[in-house]
Target: Tetratricopeptide repeat protein
Amino acid sequence: MKKTVFLFLGVLLLLSCSKKKLDYSEKGTDSIPIYLVLANEDSLPYLKRQEYNKKAFDVFIRQENDSMNRINLFKIANRYYNMGNMEEYKKTTDIILKKAIDYNDTISMTKAYSYLGDYYTNSLRRDSAFLYYTKAEKNYQKKNDKINLGGVYINIATAQAYENDFFGSELSAIKALDILKDTKEKHKIYEAYNLLGIISNELKNYEKALEYHTKALSLTDNNDVNRFYEKESSLNNIGNVYQSNAKYGLAIKNYKEALQNKSLIIGRPNLYALLLDNLAYSKLKIRDNSKLPDLFYESLKISESLKLKNDIVYIKIHLSEFYWAKKDTLTAQKFGNEALLFSRNIKNYSALLSSLKQLAVVDPLKAAMYKQEYIKLNDSLRLEEKKIREKFARIRYEADEITLEKDKAIFQKWTVFWIAVSVLLCGLVVYVFRLRKFRQRAFFLLISRQKADEEINRLMLEHHRKFEQGREKEKKRIARELQDEVVDKLFNIRTSLLVLENKTDSETIRHCISQMAEIQDVEREIRDIAHGLGRNDKSLQRGYPELLKYEIVGFANKIPLKINMEIDKAVNWDTLDSRKKLGLYQILQECLRALGKQETDVTVRFYKDNSLLVMEVNDIGFDARSLEKEQDFKGIELGAKRMGADLRISNILDGKTSIKMTMLIKTDQNF
Model:
């Protein structure tokens, strides 16, 4: 049974070799170097093809490391694989892998892993093959590349089957089939069914094996699948199942059906030789000696010409069985010993076990020795197979751990990235919010400044209106005075002076001269009225200080309270903007409103202290801590805060209070 598996997997490798050539076959020659075309031409001598492939390699290796360069190097590797030059194949693949890593090309990297897996499978280093196939598997999983992932699972299943890990191989093949079933990759599906059939046969699940092989056979009706005599290969495998189940008649039927294809000996001579050997062995089992041992010898001749070393061993074992059945002990021992020696040389331990088992039958004198060696080797192989299976499991576990660590590192990287982005976004949001708030505040300040300007203008206009009203009253008063007093006096003086027209005596003259004093009094009165009008005009020109004075005087007139006001002439009121002027005016109103009805004098001072404007309100006759005045002081404090002024309210002796407010007056930027 080991022969069946080993030979089938050998066929599978041959198919894989051909498939690489198919995967990169070119539709035309115009766009590719002529060296690649010649290197892929089977009709040319082997050395010539190697030479052309080397020339193509020398051209591509000097080119820039880009995607096209790596694709061309894969073509070089494929041609080395097709020619069986596995060392150059590996060398080229290693170069591609390095280039892919340098360029962070995961597609080429993954394909290179798969190629290296093929190399190590051919080199019988299946643990290394399993490692690289597993790396390729992880990358194909990330990319959700179902077709290539299914192919990798088939390769993994093949490597596991070589090491008799049939349960692991079956699981991998089922994964491949599950992934590929919804694709158009019929050839890969065929391989998966075929492999599952072989594994089921090894596990003695003959019904399942026939089911899988029958499904594989049904796919060979598709020309895309039956390119390398897959139909004849499936018929051979179905025959092997019947042979394993001792249904030799059915086995012979399938072998003969496969051999009906006469082109098989040219197209697939290795499969033709295998079918001849299987047919002959089944005939031997039912003691049908027709064409025996000729079928064995024909198969042996083809295998030796093709150097199919594993096939040669099993054919000689079958010849040993044939001659043992014919009672030709010496010939049976001869072929048994040749099989034993040949299997030792090629280190095919499964074939070695079969050779020892056969020699134990045909050489009774040495049977004990052969049986002892068989048991020892079988135990050793089982232990080695167990180690290999454990190694496979460890490789997969470590690969999973590496993948997990990579995913974790990537997750942490993205986590840090998104945290940084979130922090930046939060910072940006805060900045935008603060900027918006600042702009809103600036806008509100602008609006409030405009309102303050309007309010100041309104107050000034109101003050000007009241002043004009007072001025009009004053004019009317002066007019009345002029009319009632001055005009009357002038009329009387004029009447008195008219006497001079009639009398010119000294007494009359002396009387008229006395009227000059009256004229001087009238002149003084007119001058006083004129000076009063001048003072009113000057007070109009004072503007804001006059407004403050007007407010204080107006308030003092309402209550029985004497308010003394002092305004330092050194204060340049033009350095205050409208908002500060309005704020100062409003705070003064608040302070005056807080006075209430008090029987005490109050002093209000405005003076300059360096770059500060100071407003003091002293001798307020109430306690600042009293509850009934608490709300008033809150309004004063709030107004000072809005202006950026420093406000201090303190109690002095006799329950009196002093309010002192200072603010910068140098520039408008201070508010």
Remarks:
- Residues 367-497 form the longest helix (131 residues).
- The chain has a mean pLDDT of 78.
- Residues 190 and 219 are 6 Å apart (CA to CA).
- Residues 544-664 form a domain with the Heat Shock Protein 90 fold (CATH 3.30.565.10).
